[in-house]
Amino acid sequence: MKYLELFWAFFKVGLMSFGGGYAAMPLVQTQIVEELGWINMTDFTDMLAISQMTPGPISINLSTFVGARMGNLLGATAAMLGCIVPSCVIMLILTRLYRKFRTLETVQCVLAVLKPATLSMIAASGGSLFLLSVFGGEPRDLWLAGFDWRAGFDWFAAVIFAVGLVLLRIKRVKVPPVLIMLGAGVLGLVFSVLPAVNG
Fold first, then answer.
1. Who is most buried in 56, 82, 172, 180, counting CB within 10 A?
2. Is the alpha carbon torsion for 49, 172, 160, 128 positive or negative?
3. What is the DSSP string of 114-175?
4. 193 vs 6, which has greater pLDDT?
5. Is the pLDDT of residue 111 over 70?
6. What residues does each domain of the chain span?
7. In 3D, which of 19, 95, 118 has the Cα closest to residue 59?
């Protein structure tokens, strides 16, 4: 039964994740963290970071990690299949339809509407991760608490975010994102170990 639940949860994510892996993140968060409560938000962000660093599409990596957490190898397989099956079926259908009807004005209107919707989903996911990493809470909890930015503010995470953003935006430097993530992970490990060593 657990494997069917994993398959169905990620089937719904795969069915509605228009715009790629990053657009699917709010859907995964809603399904797995908020509705089903299989993992908490901290574990979700950790799995998301690992999913970005490992090869392959981020949504498939994330579904595999969640499935492995819930049901080992069979759980990982069920979650991964649930994530990719609807996308494969929909893409086969849409490819045939797009080749036949791509010049129609209605198709262009639908695509024009999907673009800003996809962008807003990516922005919502990024905003949630930023607030959790830098302010230590989920957006809903921070809003209910009055969102005092000084409470729980993590200067180290904010500096890492700013440096990473600058490195990504400087065209002359061209630092690969995976190196920035590895560097941030190493710095986080060092700064988490130092207090224990000094103590």
1. 82
2. negative
3. HHHHHHHHHHHHHHHHHHHHHHSS-HHHHHHTT--TTTT--HHHHHHHHHHHHHHH-TTT--
4. 6
5. yes
6. 2-144, 155-198
7. 19
3-state per-residue secondary structure call for 164-196: HHHHHHCCCCCCCHHHHHHHHHHHHHHHHHHHH
Does the pTM surpass 0.70? The reply is: no
Give the number of residues written for the chain.
199
Tell me which residue of 52, 58, 54 sits closest to 20, measured CA to CA.
58
Q: Output the pLDDT for position 139.
A: 55
The answer, yes or no, to whether residue 130 has pLDDT greater than 60, is: yes
Q: Which residues contact 134 (CB under 8 A, 6 or more apart)?
A: 153, 154, 157, 158, 161
pLDDT of residue 199: 53
Gap between the Cα atoms of 81 and 188, Å rounded: 33
Cα Rg for the chain, rounded, in angstroms?
19
Residues 61-90 pLDDT 10s: 888 888 888 888 898 999 899 988 988 888
The Cα 33–Cα 79 span in angstroms is 15
Residue 144 has pLDDT above 60, yes or no: no
CB count within 10 Å of CB 109 equals 10
